[in-house]
Specification:
Strand order of the largest sheet: 3-2-1-4
Number of domains: 3
CATH class of the largest domain: Mainly Beta
Number of helices: 10
Largest sheet: 4 strands, antiparallel
Distance between the termini: 86 Å
Structural class: alpha+beta
Shape: rod-shaped
CATH topology of the largest domain: OB fold (Dihydrolipoamide Acetyltransferase, E2P)
Helix content: 55-70%
């Protein structure tokens, strides 16, 4: 039968001032965060039963999970699916992850719609991608089909396809009224298709700019 352990002292960690080390009479110790200690107050002289010690360590694990999730979100917005995948990869338990994600969703900390918009704007601004590539990239984050299509419609109103195609042509030094050799024209068309634009959009812009 496991016995209660008496706390000898609680020290602030030198390298991590926001963490505490709880030292027991038998010389064993555990490290916990300041947040966990505040929500589960214990003091030197207290005796921790096995259940109380387990409660404390479980709280610490959940706090580490929360901190990891917030740290990932501090770099950039992420979809619910991506954040879950990253936390599982870090070794956290799905039974702890799912309630945290539900809390984040309820508090609008994690919002697939906002993620989709921010992600799409970043991709279009940095790479000038067209609808078909954006559709694939959004779908890779396991977003709903309706959300993907709504996002695409909104993005290519905000970033008109003709303008994006015009920017790519300008970078390739293809000007209005350009006359291209068939091989060169095919190369440009294939490049634009790989960027995610349809032949209908490409041919319309070529006609408008009188590129032959």
């Amino acid at each position: 039968m496991l016995l209660a352990q008496r706390i000898k002292e609680i020290k602030t960690q030198v390298r991590h001032p926001d963490r505490r080390t709880i030292i027991f009479d038998d010389g064993t110790f555990i490290g916990i965060s300041e947040e966990v200690l505040l929500s589960n107050p214990v003091h030197p002289g207290d005796e921790l039963t096995p259940n109380k010690l387990k409660e404390l360590t479980n709280s610490e694990q959940k706090q580490k999970l929360r901190n990891s999730a917030l740290n990932l979100l501090s770099f950039r917005m992420r979809s619910l699916s991506e954040l879950k995948r990253r936390l599982l990869k870090k070794g956290y338990d799905i039974q702890d992850i799912e309630p945290l994600l539900e809390e984040f969703d309820a508090k609008n900390i994690l919002n697939d719609s906002e993620f989709a918009l921010a992600f799409s704007r970043d991709k279009i601004r940095s790479k000038g991608i067209g609808p078909s590539i954006l559709r694939v990239e959004l779908s890779n984050h396991h977003l709903s089909r309706n959300l993907v299509e709504d996002t695409i419609n909104r993005m290519y109103t905000e970033f008109p396809i003709d303008t994006l195609l015009g920017n790519h042509l300008k970078k390739k030094k293809i000007r209005r009224n350009s006359q291209l050799q068939e091989r060169e024209k095919n190369r440009i068309v294939n490049f634009l298709k790989r960027k995610g634009f349809s032949w209908d959009d490409i041919s319309r812009v070529f006609d408008e700019k009188q590129i032959t």
